[in-house]
Amino acid sequence: MLQKFFNGIGNISNHGLQMVHYRVESLKDLSTIINHFDSYPLITTKYSNFELFKQAYFIMLNKEHLTKEGLDKLISIKATMNLGLSDKLKEAFPNITSLDRSEVSNIKINNPQWLAGFATGEGCFYIKLVKSPKSKLGLSVQLIFQITQHIKDEKLMKSLINYLNSGNLFIGTRTHKRCFCIWSNQIFRFSWKNCTRGSACLSPPEKVF
Fold first, then answer.
1. Phi/psi at 179 (nearest 5 deg)?
2. SS3 55
3. 47-81 per-position pLDDT tens digit
């Protein structure tokens, strides 16, 4: 579906037993991806990586990477993105310094379709059983929707609470994660109405109490 949305560009390949990759590599096809995210900006920390990626794209498009100066620019960009440089690259390019990163200026959810897509990729619906002495069966049941992101996207996670007017934010004590959880039926109405896709998609409930 994703490949079809982008008019068939890119390739899909298996990654392990339970994962698949959608990858776009050619400069010609990457222009479609870049144009899309210029029109529909990212509002997570991936926005910074996207802006750096665009710089690298135009360096290669203009064939600057064929010069020593252009190659150093690309390595500096790579040093700033994601996990940075590997030890081998640091050894090969000891004088490379990281660049300044662009930050998202307005982290606000304005489109329910954006949240539906975000939930498709990052959301998790599950049933939790909790010991409860007040219950005749000794267990209580909770229906939970959860999204987990890196601590860098904490502002975005808080915006989910504001947008849905529901949910809570939990901080992982041993990780750099932030978990947004919601226990109300509001998220179920939202997800079906706005048509999530992928493994996170829910069948429409006959009745929501």
1. -115, 125
2. helix
3. 999 999 999 999 999 999 999 999 999 999 999 99
Among the ranges 11-25, 133-147, 152-166, which has the highest mean pLDDT value? Answer: 11-25
Residue 146: alpha-carbon gap to chain centroid = 14
d(CA 176, CA 197): 28
Contact 147, 179 (CB under 8 A): yes
Q: Is residue 37 part of a domain?
A: yes
Candidates 119, 108, 126, 107; CA nearest to 193 is 119
Are both 122 and 83 inside the same structural domain? Answer: no
The DSSP secondary structure of 152-193, one letter per residue, reads GGHHHHHHHHHHHT--EEEE-SSSSEEEEEE-STHHHHHHHH
Tell whether 206 is covered by a domain.
no
- 106 falls within a domain: no
Token output for 117: 């897509």
- Structural domains in the chain (count): 2
In-domain check, residue 146: yes
Question: Locate tokens 């049933």: which residue?
Answer: 127
CATH of the domain at 73: 3.10.28.10
Which pLDDT value is given to residue 189?
57
Q: What is the pTM of this model?
A: 0.74
Of residues 152, 40, 66, 30, the one with CA closest to residue 101: 152
Contacts with 138 (C-beta within 8 Å, 6 or more apart), sequence order: 131, 132
Is the domain of 12 the same as that of 56?
A: yes
